[in-house]
Amino acid sequence: MSSSVGGLTSAAAQQGLSKDAFLQLLVTQMQYQDPLQPMDNSQFLAQLAQFSALEQMTNVAQADQQILQAVQNLALVQQWSTVRSLLGTQVVVDAGSGQQVSGTVSAVRLGSDGNPQLVVNGQTYALSALQELTAPLAASDSSTSPNSTSADLSSSGTAGTANSAGTPPVSG
Predict the structure, then answer these.
(1) Which among 37, 133, 152, 172 has the fewest CB atoms less than 10 Å away?
(2) How far apart (Å, rounded) are the C-alpha atoms in residues 94 and 172?
(3) Is 117 exposed, middle or buried (0-12, 13-18, 19+ CB in 10 A)?
């Protein structure tokens, strides 16, 4: 009768046998074994060892899958961060047929294939068409000056300026 139980074991293994189900089958196999020709203990131990190894390989495969998903997510975030930094940058892209288009990246879009695309001079180009890039254009807004950052820092209550009560800072 152990052959039919063994047949059940192999059929159940193909359907994704859990550890508990395997142990239950093993106990059932022990209960219904021929008392005149009992199974050798080494056979039971070998089956347990094989199942344990299989379970560990399954755990490793699941962990690998989780790591792969995390790396793919990180790569996507990195790609979008990189593409976002191209906004306002002068670029040269391949327009196809050996033609090059030069212009400023005005937007970034998500293509139908899930990959980012650059909008240059109103036309959309794949990120892979990017051939050259130069520094971002300076802001043309006349209300900002190159010294505005240092002016903001000097009025923020840093060392050497008076605090809100009008008293000099205390140095310790």
Answers:
(1) 172
(2) 61
(3) buried
| 141 in Cβ contact with 106 (< 8 Å) | no
Residues 92 and 131: beta-carbon distance below 8 Å:
yes
3-state DSSP helix/strand/coil % of the chain, to nearest 5: 45, 20, 35
Residue 28: CB atoms within 10 Å: 13
What CA–CA distance (Å, rounded) separates 3 from 24?
16
From first to last of its 172 residues, the chain has per-residue pLDDT tens of 444 444 444 444 445 667 778 778 878 887 888 888 777 778 778 888 888 888 899 899 999 999 999 999 898 888 888 888 888 889 999 888 888 999 999 998 888 887 888 999 999 998 888 888 887 556 554 444 444 333 333 333 444 444 444 444 454 4
Is residue 111 within a helix (H) or strand (E), and if so which, with residue range? none
Q: What is the rounded CA–CA span in Å between residue 22 and residue 8?
A: 10
Q: What are 125's strand-pairing partners?
A: 118
Amino acid at 32: Y
> What φ, ψ does residue 49 adopt, rounded to 5°?
-65, -40
Q: At a CB cut-off of 8 Å and minimum separation 6, what does 86 contact?
A: 105, 108, 118, 130, 133
